[in-house]
Amino acid sequence: MNIKQAVPFFRVSDMKESIRFYVDGLGCEIRDKWELDGQLRWCWLTLGEAALMLQEFPTSGHDSWTPSGKVGEGVTIVLICEDALQFYRQVVERGLSASQPFVSNGMWLTSLTDPDGYRLDFESDTDVPEGTRLGQEAE
């Protein structure tokens, strides 16, 4: 196979807000970027071995794009973690609102939604019974 990696590409409505969410909140690192007139327009982000790209398009003129609705609605990206519970605690400590972790399909699952409506699921393997919520493990 010649394919090396799939990298989700998210069109975003406000790059500064997205950077606050992804870099300051989730802990992503900017691997590469493109600036135009001193403003960040595109970037490649990494989080562990995962990657995604963000781009804010102009709303008028050449290469413009105006969404007809919330751009991320209906899109979910699943990221497999070593420890989704540890990740949950880290992002909540940074001020993000993540769903309470629970066990689904043999994996701890916590979810966040970015400023444009893209849903990010963070999962890790567990032998805890199906449907268990964080804090119920010992009950």
Largest sheet: number of strands, sense, barrel closure: 4 strands, mixed
Stretches where pLDDT is under 50 for at least 5 consecutive residues are none
Strand order of the largest sheet: 1-4-3-2
Helix and strand sequence:
EHEEEEHEEE
CATH superfamily: 2,3-Dihydroxybiphenyl 1,2-Dioxygenase, domain 1
Structural summary, described in words:
This protein is α/β, with parallel strands linked by helices. The protein has one domain (9-58, 70-125): 2,3-Dihydroxybiphenyl 1,2-Dioxygenase, domain 1 (Roll), CATH 3.10.180. It has two helices and eight strands. The chain has a four-stranded mixed sheet with strand order 1-4-3-2, with helices on one face. Strand 2 (29-36) and strand 3 form a beta hairpin. The radius of gyration is 17 Å and the shape is elongated. The termini are far apart. The mean pLDDT is 93.
